[in-house]
Design brief:
The protein is α/β, with parallel strands linked by helices and 211 residues long. The protein has six helices and eleven strands. The strands form three sheets. Strands 1-2-4-3 form a four-stranded mixed sheet. A four-stranded mixed sheet has the order 5-6-8-7. The chain is globular.
Length: 211
């Protein structure tokens, strides 16, 4: 069964349960999964899909974007196709191709790049600040935040996914977290401190939210 969402034709899968509510979600790329009560008719579902077409279309386009990301390898704002070659000893990049022995080698290289690039950018940006206390850097994958500053423990944590973004966006997150040493909240005073060192912070925030 198929339904039309704007210019897209998507597959429709209906799962009937005892739940009272109706749930829509996209899964496996081109399939809209609907969970509903057994008494909800197909015509009623079609009516609800049409009624919520705008929001469902946004969900679908977000899923398409996610699937596209899964097909490629992103590094410092650039998109690469990964080529596996079991004879390789090191990672190499040529145009829009990245060559690696296997996924394990690629992940280890990416981890090292996070350490190298993030520390390098911190050292570049620190002269823009004064009276910043000594702090330690941690790197880990986070699902909802690009960076965290534990001011009390003096630990800045950066999301490892940042390595996929442009250097200018990495800089914004670092500036943002360093400014928390001046202002622990997100007051006007905080954003003023950010603006002194990263005037286009609004555009950077928008770009990070769209990822």
């Amino acid at each position: 069964m198929e339904v039309q969402l704007g210019e897209y034709t998507v597959s429709l899968e209906i799962e009937r349960k005892r739940n009272k509510n109706i749930y829509f979600r996209f899964k496996d790329g081109n399939t809209l999964y609907v969970t509903c009560n057994k008494y909800v008719s197909v015509s009623e579902l079609n009516r609800l899909i049409k009624q919520n077409e705008k929001s469902l279309l946004k969900m679908y386009e977000k899923e398409l974007k996610r699937k596209e990301k899964d097909l490629f390898f992103y590094y410092l704002g650039n998109k690469y196709t990964v080529v596996y070659d079991s004879s390789l000893k090191t990672i190499s990049i040529n145009d829009d191709m990245i060559y690696t022995k296997d996924e394990k080698m690629l992940n280890k290289w990416l981890k090292n790049e996070c350490e190298r690039v993030f520390k390098e950018r911190i050292n570049v940006l620190l002269p823009e600040f004064s009276n910043i206390p000594p702090f330690s850097l941690r790197i880990r994958k986070m699902s909802t935040r690009w960076g965290v500053n534990n001011v009390t423990k003096r630990i800045i944590t950066l999301n490892s996914e940042l390595i996929k973004r442009d250097v200018t966006l990495i800089d914004y997150v670092i500036v943002h977290e360093l400014c928390h040493f001046y202002e622990a909240n997100h007051s006007k005073r905080f954003w003023y401190q950010v603006s002194l060192r990263y005037p286009n912070y609004s555009e950077a925030r928008k770009s990070l939210r769209s990822w």
